[in-house]
Amino acid sequence: MEQKMPLYVKFPMVLLTIILTVTIMIYAKGVLVPLLISGLLAVLISPLSSWLENRGVPRLLAAFISLVALLGFLFGLAYFFYNQLIGFADELYLLERRMSEFIMIFNEFTEQHVEGAVPISFDDIQGATFNYLYENMASLTQGVIATATTLTIVFIIPIYIFLFLYFRQFLIEFIRRAFSEKHQDKVQKVIHKVKLVVQNYIVGMFIVILILAVLNSIALYGFGLRHALLFAVFAALLNVIPFLGPFIGATLPIVYAILTKDSFWYPFGIFLTFYVIQLAESNIFTPRIVGGKVSMNPLMTIIALLIGNFIWGLAGMILFIPGMAMMKVIFDEIDGMEPYGFLLGSTRRKKEKGITLQVPGARFNLFKKKKG
């Protein structure tokens, strides 16, 4: 007869396991984060490598061509932001002057309309803020590659991606051999589902980002905002961080409009436009493009963000979303772990038609009843 472990013994063991796991993840950040990023990107471009191999290209060359294609896209994106930031840095003095005028107007308003109020002086804060920007703009735009983290990303991650691509069949075979023969079908199913989750998430998010970048650009150019393309693309990229990313992406052009435009109708119009675009993203674009394979409920999404930020910072906030989606796939296939997969999943069952709760937006959406 199987004996169950007492709760007073099981709970400390689970708690100790969690503490050790988190501690290892924190101290092994420099190893784990590049590996996870490389693994996700390798899974993303693996169809291209497989397509080349099926047409007679040697595996080594196919992996190299796939890697070059990915790096070409990433370097193009980095070059775009570099040029945009250089142009934005040239206007910092205009923003400083406008900020000074805005502070003077605020102080005059408080003196005239608030009896006995002492105007707040922002001169020291203003000077410190802009001095910091001036002193660090060069490092933010030109000297970025000098940091150890960036060097790791530039040199180590491409090597990992290439090795993952070249040895992907070997790694899959290792996973299969790690389990008994009776579990082979389930293991193969989990591997296939995890691969689909990663590809569906990254490709879907890329398409959503492109759509948001176009819509944001049209909106900001319509309001006559300078550096509209920079703000539009940056806000679209921030959409990979649920909840917080869209908020920051909308705040930056609104603040810039307040400082550079003569009417407050401009920042209000930008706020309203971004709000409508974000509604369309959460209710139309992400659900239909990313699909239901990576759906998680909002509570688990927020928890994933908080835990990811605590363990790995910004990288954790980005990596923990697809990571928890993959955990859901694994939990759904392991006997006894189904409740945890249910906890991570959306609050609606798959048989219901309509729009589901999605990653990365993870927002409540509308559902339609089945016909008949």
Describe this structure in words.
The protein has about 375 residues and is an all-alpha fold. It is built from 14 helices and 2 strands. It has a two-stranded antiparallel sheet with strand order 1-2. The model is unreliable at about 140-150 and about 350-370 (pLDDT under 50).
Topology overview:
Layout: H1 7-27, H2 29-54, H3 59-89, H4 92-113, H5 123-141, H6 148-166, H7 168-177, H8 184-222, H9 228-237, H10 244-260, H11 265-289, H12 298-312, H13 314-333, H14 338-344, E1 353-354, E2 367-368
Features of the shown structure:
disordered C terminus, 1% strand, 372 residues
Q: How do the helices and strands follow one another from N- to C-terminus?
A: HHHHHHHHHHHHHHEE
Strand content: under 5%
Biggest β-sheet: count, sense, barrel? 2 strands, antiparallel
Structural shape: globular
Would you tell me the structural class of the helices and strands?
mainly alpha
Distance between the termini: 50 Å
Total DSSP helices:
14
Cross-sheet strand order for the largest sheet:
1-2
Low-confidence stretches: 139-148, 349-372
> What value does the average pLDDT take?
77
Percentage of helical residues?
Answer: over 70%
Rg, Cα atoms, Å: 25 Å
What is the tally of beta strands? 2
